[in-house]
Amino acid sequence: MLNWGSGANNPKFKRRRQRLVDTLADKGIKDKRVLEAFNVVPRHVFVDTALQDRAYKDTALPIGKEQTISQPYTVARQTELLEVKPGEKVLEIGTGSGYQAAILCELGAEVYTVERHDELYKKSRSILRELGYSVRAKLGDGTMGWSAYAPYDAIVVTAGAPVVPEDLVDQLALNGRLVVPVGDDKRQEMVRIIKIREDEFEEEHYSDFKFVPLIGKKGWQK
Ligand code: SAM
Q: 140 C-alpha to center of ligand 1: Å?
């Protein structure tokens, strides 16, 4: 799937990727398919050259426009909670660098992603394309989802919301999973909502995370 001509297959980074995978497993990530996706996607390609040496540390890094590529553990945990199966339709709100979208592609998902910053939208699209990942990307406010392609088997929000955005719940398919961090500007709980029947949902909460804010009509107001 990857176009290795981009320099993504540098052996130094390959070794560091394996060590990051070991760290994620030590921190409790169990899903083998998720860990394998982290072993394949070249995170260093999604950050500026000056930051590439830090790309395989388990930390968030700046990507411009005051945004971040999330901490790998956070991406792994959200991905694990999504329980993506090959061929499923997955919507991501907050494309950012494009890294999470690439991980979802490696899991065999059909990926739709929305980003509100023009610069990040364009840059992530070009990196994903260069690496050979095929995603449908849109520039805009993702707090209302992307109704044109709904319903989705899984929806992941990669920015912190004040409340669960209702439009996203409405765009879930039967057995669909929505994973969204919800809280104030300091910390958020990861909420997973599963649509178990028409108009019947299960809700689970997972411990604290820290995200940049989800800004938009059904999110935080700027
Ligand atoms: N998934 C990203 C990655 O792998 O790099 C992480 C991105 S960052 C933690 C969150 C992103 O959400 C930022 O790029 C931010 O601009 C975006 N965002 C915030 N509010 C948004 C909204 N209403 N619609 C779409 N994107 C939004």
A: 11
Cα-to-centroid distance, 147 and ligand 1 (Å): 18
- What are the helix (H) ranges across the chain? 11-26, 32-40, 72-82, 99-106, 118-131, 166-170
What residues does ligand 1 touch, defined as CB less than 6 Å away?
Answer: 67-70, 93-94, 96-97, 99-100, 114-117, 120, 141-143, 158-159, 211-212, 214-216, 219
CATH number of 60-209: 3.40.50.150
Q: Taking the CA of residue 41 as centre, how many other CA atoms within 13 Å lie in the half-sphere pointing to its CB?
A: 28
pLDDT along the chain (222 residues), means of 10: 54 94 98 98 96 96 97 98 98 98 98 98 97 97 98 98 98 98 96 97 94 96 86
